[in-house]
């Protein structure tokens, strides 16, 4: 079967998993399992969505709108069976910066544009490339975000009263918070500690209990019953509405779109990474397989819809998706029901949210930040290699001191450089001809010398193993140039070269021209079709170079060519 026939069809790439599940057969038992899972996830998502919205600099109902509208569409249209969409902690810093700079309307524009970009990335089938982000980058990036989010919650954790606006940058923020330490509110600290203690206690002794919801409910009751002097959702925001807003299109005028493109690009990159990582986690837990490009299209549609309803950026959320799998979900219906349960809360129980203390939500987010710093993974990466540790540390530092997008870019670039260096070092050259004595030390790469043409001084042999690309081309070219100048035929075995780029092909072409000036011939054996294609494009083709299926044929042809030349001379 050829490659064209083996490539997936449009339907295979973009059919939502909901359709797949329904085709497989969906009965009452599946509905019941998904209803239980959806309710479980909604209980987790309810306080978390409000906490993320508040930490992002907007009112708490914006987080609920995001989870309801975005979460429903991601499950309806997505390429993962178990993905749960909603507001994510990873976006807090980006969203807060956008709101501070452009206001709520600017955030809605950036979210809408990000949705269009995500759909475009999915339609162009670029979802696979998002997975190329090195793992140390994601660990360092997530840890950096955890530190930044925790710093943003110190004010509410301690109940501080600031004399001015809270800076966005980490160091100025810490300086302002330190100056406000004399205004610590003991009641707020107590509420935050109670919330943290309940969440960790549930995690240790009752892992199946909804620790987040219990913590928020208990702290709300304590604050109300004891008349504690702490800020609540009601005192700061006036509660939350009891209905969804009427959808409206944000201002998409050219000046506004141009100003918000950088924010939209950041949302797109982070959203694609976060959602596909979440889908991969769901696959590893369930044994399934998601459709990455279909998932990105669904993420894009969900972001556009979230912006229309006044919501935040929406993405796949790892913690809620994992909760969904553990709760026994059968398919995307669980995610859709989770959104409907949250909608029911807004319609029926919205007034209760006014009593939730902000210190309790800050304690909830503090535990989220603790989980975002993956200590075991960091330890593993430090033990694995110095390169992985360097990428992790650099990404972490750039994220917390400069910028999230820059952190990903720097970490990815550094990881790529380290990988290329390792690939270049993995290239091996075996030479079967005497190397010029003056350059012996420079060309000693350690491999054993194997010469299938031993005993024939007129034939030089060279085997190249590994990726022959710009990182290794210099070393390979230097070795070829230092081969003896007397052989009349050169056999170069490329059977162990999986990849050849233009720099490597140009190196071979330069060698062909060099030996051609003294009428020597080049015989190439074992080159793969993709390797031959690049060589042909650079002019390395008959009659200047001849190709053979294996080494034996190439050496036989070299000997036959030498014999023919000798006969012609006589």
Automatic annotation (TrEMBL):
The UniProt entry, under SUPFAM superfamilies, shows: SpoIIaa-like
Q: What is its main location?
A: membrane
The family database entries (InterPro entries) matched by this protein are listed as: SLC26A/SulP_dom, SLC26A/SulP_fam, STAS_dom, STAS_dom_sf
The Gene Ontology CC terms held by the record are: membrane
Where do transmembrane segments lie in this chain? 35-55, 67-100, 106-126, 133-154, 174-202, 209-228, 259-282, 340-368, 388-414
Keyword field:
Membrane, Transmembrane, Transmembrane helix
* Record keyword Transmembrane present: yes
In which compartments does the protein localize? Answer: Membrane
User: What positions does the domain STAS occupy?
Assistant: 457-558
Q: How does it sit in the membrane?
A: Multi-pass membrane protein
Q: Which Pfam families match?
A: STAS, Sulfate_transp
CDD domains xrefs: STAS_SulP_like_sulfate_transporter
Q: Which GO terms describe its biological process?
A: transmembrane transport
- PANTHER family, alphabetically? SULFATE TRANSPORTER
Q: What is this protein called?
A: SulP family inorganic anion transporter
Name its species.
Answer: Sphingobium nicotianae
């Amino acid at each position: 079967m050829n490659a064209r026939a083996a490539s997936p069809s449009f339907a295979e790439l973009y059919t939502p998993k909901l359709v797949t599940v329904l085709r497989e057969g969906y009965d009452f038992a599946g509905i019941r399992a998904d209803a239980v899972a959806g309710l479980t996830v909604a209980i987790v998502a309810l306080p978390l969505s409000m906490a993320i919205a508040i930490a992002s600099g907007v009112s708490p109902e914006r987080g609920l709108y995001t989870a309801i509208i975005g979460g429903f569409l991601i499950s309806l249209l997505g390429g993962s069976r178990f993905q749960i969409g909603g507001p994510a902690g990873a976006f807090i810093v980006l969203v807060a910066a956008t709101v501070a700079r452009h206001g709520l309307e600017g955030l809605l524009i950036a979210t809408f544009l990000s949705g269009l970009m995500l759909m475009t990335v999915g339609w162009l089938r670029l979802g696979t490339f998002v997975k190329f982000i090195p793992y140390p980058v994601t660990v360092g990036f997530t840890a950096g975000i955890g530190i930044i989010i925790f710093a943003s919650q110190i004010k509410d954790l301690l109940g501080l009263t600031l004399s001015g606006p809270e800076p966005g940058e980490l160091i100025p923020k810490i300086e302002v918070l330190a100056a406000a330490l004399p205004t610590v509110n003991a009641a707020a600290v107590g509420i935050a500690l109670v919330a943290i203690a309940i969440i960790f206690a549930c995690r240790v002794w009752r892992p199946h209990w909804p620790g987040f919801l219990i913590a928020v409910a208990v702290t709300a009751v304590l604050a109300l019953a004891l008349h504690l002097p702490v800020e609540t959702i009601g005192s700061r925001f006036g509660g939350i509405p009891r209905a969804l807003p009427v959808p409206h299109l944000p201002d998409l005028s050219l000046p506004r779109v141009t100003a918000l493109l950088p924010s939209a690009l950041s949302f797109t990159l982070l959203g694609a990474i976060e959602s596909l990582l979440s889908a991969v986690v769901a696959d590893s837990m369930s044994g399934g397989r998601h459709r990455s490009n279909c998932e990105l299209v669904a993420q894009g549609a969900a972001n556009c819809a979230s912006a229309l309803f006044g919501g935040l950026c929406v993405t796949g959320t790892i913690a809620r998706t994992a909760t969904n799998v553990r709760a026994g979900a059968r398919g995307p219906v669980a995610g859709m029901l989770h959104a409907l349960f949250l909608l029911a809360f807004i319609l029926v129980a919205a007034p209760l949210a006014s009593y939730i203390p902000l210190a309790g939500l800050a304690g909830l987010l503090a535990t989220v930040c603790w989980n975002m710093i993956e200590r075991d993974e960091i330890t593993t990466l430090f033990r694995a290699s110095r390169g992985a540790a360097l990428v992790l540390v650099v990404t972490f530092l750039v994220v917390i001191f400069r910028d999230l997008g820059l952190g990903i870019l720097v970490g990815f670039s550094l990881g790529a450089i380290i990988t290329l260096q390792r690939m270049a070092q993995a290239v091996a050259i075996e030479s079967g001809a005497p190397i010029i004595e003056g350059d012996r030390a420079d060309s000693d790469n350690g491999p054993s010398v194997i010469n299938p043409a031993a005993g024939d001084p007129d034939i030089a042999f060279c085997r190249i193993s590994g990726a022959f690309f710009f990182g290794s081309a210099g070393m390979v070219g230097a070795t070829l140039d230092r081969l003896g100048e007397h052989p009349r035929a050169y056999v170069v075995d490329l059977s162990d070269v999986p990849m050849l780029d233009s720099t490597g092909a140009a190196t071979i072409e330069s060698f062909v021209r060099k030996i051609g000036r003294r009428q020597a011939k080049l015989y190439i054996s074992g080159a793969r079709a993709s390797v031959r294609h690049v060589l042909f494009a650079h002019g390395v083709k008959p009659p200047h170079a001849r190709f053979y299926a294996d080494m034996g044929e190439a050496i036989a042809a070299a000997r036959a060519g030498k014999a023919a030349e000798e006969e012609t001379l006589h």
